[in-house]
Amino acid sequence: MSRKRKQELQASEQQNTPSRDASAGRKVLHAFGKAVDMTIDLTAGGIVTVFKAIGTILLILMVTGMMFACVFAYYVKTCLTPNLDLSLEDFKLNESSTVWYRDGAGEWRELVNLSGREKRVWVNYEDIPWYMEKALVAIEDKRFYDHKGVDWYRTFGAFVEMFARMQTSYGGSTITQQLIKNLTGEDEVTIQRKLTEIFGALELEKKYDKQEIMEWYLNAVYFGEGCYGVQTAAQTYFGKDVSDLTMAECAAIVGITNLPTYYDPFYNEENNKKRQETILREMYEQGFIDYGQYEQAVHEELHFTRTPNTTYTQEIMHYYTEMVIDDVTNDLMKLKGIGRDTARTLLYNGGYQIYCCLDTTVQAAIDAVYTDLNQIPYAGGSQQFQSAIVVMNPYDGRILGISGGVGEKTINFGLNRATGTYRSPGSSIKPIASYGPAVDLGIITPDTLIMDSQNISLKGTSWFPMNDDRQSYGMVSIFSALQYSLNTAAAQIVDKLPMGPQTSYDYLTTRLGVTSLVPADCDYAPMALGQLTNGISVKEMCQAYCAFVNDGVFTYGRSYAMVTDKEGNIVIDNSPSTIQAFKPNTAHVMTYMLQNATEHGTGSEAALWSVPTAGKTGTSGDYKDRWYVGCTPYYVAAVWTGFDIPEVIHMAGNPAAQLWRKVMAPVHDGLDYVAFPYPQLGPNTGVFDLFDSPPVHYDEYADYRPNTGTIGYGDNGDINYDYGGGYGGGYGGDDFLSYGGNDMFLG
After folding, report:
1. Of 197, 297, 330, 690, which sees the most CB atoms within 10 A?
2. Confidence class of residue 510 from pLDDT cuts 50, 70 and 90?
3. Are 329 and 340 in contact (CB under 8 A)?
4. Lowest mean pLDDT segment, chosen from 18-27, 151-160, 437-446, 465-474
5. Rounded to an integer, what distance in angstroms lies between the CA atom of residue 563 and that of residue 382?
6. Buried-state track 104-127, b at ≥16 Cβ within 10 A, e below 16
């Protein structure tokens, strides 16, 4: 190639080079653009995804929040807002209630008028001094007129204080919150109680204005000395109506509410005076009074009706009257969802008519014995020997008479040993916890044979008791085992029940109204011998035995039949509440065996002979409690004897059986002989694998005839009789008295 041609080619290449560079640049720019577009698309997609995720989360939170709000609102409505079936008008009646009883002719007569029996008198807002209200607001709730039931400043401060100091005393309660606490009786120191108080106060202030809440509060709060409300407090401390109180006297009364036992002027005038001056100073500093009024009130001499060293007397109520008041109070609490003090105030001011179940003939027979200490057996000891009795109609559950102690009653609402204490029942539990259930389940009959021996092993426990006299009698019938209250037999019977002690426990708690048992009582010694953790009340023993007389039907004991308002409208219908505890024939078998146990066994001291008497004695470990629970075709009565602080009872015989007879003999005077229904006895069941020896019944003491006698309860409250034959009667029998110790219980 010529030199010239080479130069032309080089020149051509130089001219084409910029074009190739430009093309490469365009490719780079295109690639960059694509990358940018892709980045934008990815970024935009990511942002959208993030926003979608955030939106989803917010939606979930919102829905969850709404669900939580609904649940919380429901919880507040159902759990935190008190369900008070209560109206201010219920209290403003200010009419006393009356307790009525039916006399022998069937006419209702007044037993007691509750007006003045306790210090509960309602006073209207218009009669409450202005100073009384301002004193209360100044010391208890200075923002009372501004808040809607809750002072959120104080509440927040109280919760901060609680968490800062790790204390459970919340404080910060307004007058409205304090009223809620007084009405409901809820005073546990818990967060839930505080929340209930808060929401209850908010609801209350929606229904009532400040004057109504103030009126309610000043009539419901306790002011010491048994006083509920400012009217009774004014009468008690100053001997005048609340409308006549001075400002100084108002401050002195308001000061008591904070701590009645400390600021009660009858106990300590100095403490009350200091509190009064604190209240007056708050009234001045908050602008309710001027300095001159403050000085005058501080220096005013207070004239109380009595000094701390002065005693006063009160009208003493009967045990039966107190029982009726307690029972109606408890039922009002349940009915209206209110506290005890509120229910008691309502009872005394609501104009209620209470129709009680008292039988004055029965009660007179009880009082003739129990108020006369000469009638009470002597049992040694360093204390007064005590006793309690309950007598019931077994067909309708009416409690006809009671006594909660012996001798003169000196205080109101003190210890009622018939209804308010629990003592070990000993062998008196055997018919309702072992023999009764076993007969009911077809496990034993009176003819069933059982071995009384120490060489017995129970399948459910290594425990085994001894008899009270430490003797063993070999093969005996169930009929005789109950007659002589053999502990070994009761233990073996419990062992043969389908679930052992659990079956006994279930009969007592679900069929026979026993409320004092605890899980630890579901064991052999408690169910066979009555070694209960807490014991059992006289009332519950009495009502449990009623099932034996009433064809196996258990009826809860009741002290009153009905409560009406002043217009005659029924407020509480306390009709009989029943459970079919045993089969009818079981009840007949049990009265058949218990009649033998009383007339020819351990209960012979209680036998009346004019009518059949069926019952069971009981003795706790170390002879510290003695019982007799007895039945006739007319009545059932339970008697406990012992010391308030348990001591050994040093006497032969059974004082409970002796007292039972002293009371029940005159009660049955003039009544016709009516036999218990004769049972279908059944053969030896062989449950204890004994068949060789026939049972021994004490037929020589009995006059067996076809039973045509029946007894029932009529609609008008009277007992109806259909006279006929029966079994029982005769005179004689053995006294079976033994002395025992731990795990050796006499019947």
Report:
1. 197
2. very high
3. yes
4. 18-27
5. 44
6. eeeeeeebbebbebbbbbbbeeee
